Amino acid sequence: MKYSFISAEEAAASIHNGNTIGIGGFSSVGTPKAVPAALAVYAEKLHSEGKEFKVGLITGGATGSQVDSALVQAHAVAFRTPFQSNKEMRNAINAGEVQYYDVHLSQIGQDVRYGFLGDIDVAIVEASDITEEGDIVLSTSVGISPTLIQVAHKVIIELNEAHASKLTGMHDIYIPDAPPYRREIPIYRVNDRAGSISVRVNPEKVVGVVRTNERDRIAAFTPLNDTTSRIGQNVADFLLGEYQRGAIPREFLPLQSGVGNIANAVLGALGADKKLPAFSMYTEVIQNSVIDLMMQERIRFVAGSSLTLSDDRLDMLYDNIDVMKERVLLRPQEITNHPEMIRRLGIIAVNTALEADIFGNVNSTHVLGSKMMNGIGGSADFARNAYLSIFTTPSTAKDGLISSIVPHVSHVDSTEHDVRILVTEQGVADLRGKSPSQRARCIIENCAHPDYKELLWDYLKLSEGKGCHTPMSLRNALKMHIAFAETGDMRNTKFEM
Ligand code: 0RQ
């Protein structure tokens, strides 16, 4: 071993108040586990001595409880970016304790390389192996770790023996050249390799190696319900229609799908529909259903930035590791989410909205316009650049008290210009080629819940015919949100004439 082994406590003590820390990992996996926990204990000790200790956290995306919960509970985080999906972190962000910068996942790596967010004092990354030359073989995710390792002043490596050598060869580490003389990313097919299997680190920066032996804690998804199944089936039926009329090439197109139960339902329905050919995925997150469909030969190849798998699916992957290494690639999120790649490969992107308005604007991040849920993640990277950009959402939330289809979204993440298809359990709204008035009719008719249709038609009627391109009533646009905030039920909305 080229580097010395140290304890998590020794590693934590090399981090100082006010430091910016780059944490490896993506979509809750491949994150360091021992050092963040030790850092939380260290912060609490300093606080009990009346000393200040807070750090800034820059990550690839969601990190999971070992990082976000531990450090937030210790009141040790001043700043956080980008995507998170952790309850404690979300509460601290909404309480104003943590300053949160929400940015597209394709951009954060480049922003860090060019110093947009200041220096990275310490990078903490998880390795599954360290080569004789001292290069780092990452573990279950890539995220922005190669960039963090490149730019950080100090690097702490957690060597996770739970994955020992099993993942070697599955990574494809490529960082784009510097502008303005950048060449194209040399990936022309989903399975092309562009880079190396490990990350080179300047040995002088390595503080030490902390041994761990712990898997990521990914829970199995909740079973499909009626609503998520119908959304999945609607997406599959729509894509089959497009395929049969020749709008999608015979070999099909690579698919991106978000995370969570709806994404699982969509993949399940696509996998089950044998009229569609087996397909490839060019996506951010490789979740359980992808492994299931690979075992059934419905997915040919997958490239992503993380193996967000529960233990049984990771076992399945490891049991078939020789075959899986031919069919799975893990890349930096800057490449999986790169607009150039998404456009060139003609990705079909399926992401989830919290709410959508009748014109097709989508809110993926803010409850009632102000409370942060998770963050924009990669949804807009894909939505803007995809061949077909699909957003899904149940037509209602909170047992029907909220309509997910509203006159005007309370926050915009993906605009009407980027959202081509909207799908709820009620049906599919194909927005391509339609004016705002036509889109509004199409969405109300096909996507809104019957409890809210009349209300939405009323809004449209009172907004139309006033010499405008987009029938919007400034006075009434947020009335449904206001009704929910004041009465707890959007069905109590009263529009002003
Ligand atoms: O709240 O848990 O308290 O009941 O919002 O909603 O239905 O559990 O949805 O887990 O699929 O997440 C958009 C957040 C959806 C996610 C979002 C309430 C609802 C519930 C969550 P409760 P569900 P999901 C790939 C691409 C952005 C990033 C992205 C996301 C909670 O998909 O973060 O796409 N997307 N990345 O009750 C108020 C509404 C609501 C509402 C739902 N209209 N108003 N509350 N809820 N609709 C992955 C990465 O980027 C890594």
Automatic annotation (TrEMBL):
Enzyme Commission identifier(s): 2.8.3.-
Domain of life from the UniProt record: Bacteria
GO BP: acetate metabolic process; acetyl-CoA metabolic process
Residues binding CoA, per UniProt: N374, G378, K398
Protein family per UniProt: Belongs to the acetyl-CoA hydrolase/transferase family.
NCBIfam families: YgfH_subfam (TIGR03458)
Domain Acetyl-CoA hydrolase/transferase N-terminal: 6-210
Presence of keyword Lipid metabolism: no
Domain named Acetyl-CoA hydrolase/transferase C-terminal: residues: 316-458
Protein's recorded name: Succinate CoA transferase
Residues of the active site: E284
Keyword match Transferase: yes
Keyword vocabulary terms for this entry: Transferase
GO-annotated molecular function: acetate CoA-transferase activity; acetyl-CoA hydrolase activity
Pfam families linked: AcetylCoA_hyd_C, AcetylCoA_hydro
Matching InterPro entries: AcetylCoA_hyd_C, AcetylCoA_hyd_C_sf, ActCoA_hydro, ActCoA_hydro_N, NagB/RpiA_transferase-like, Succinate_CoA_transferase
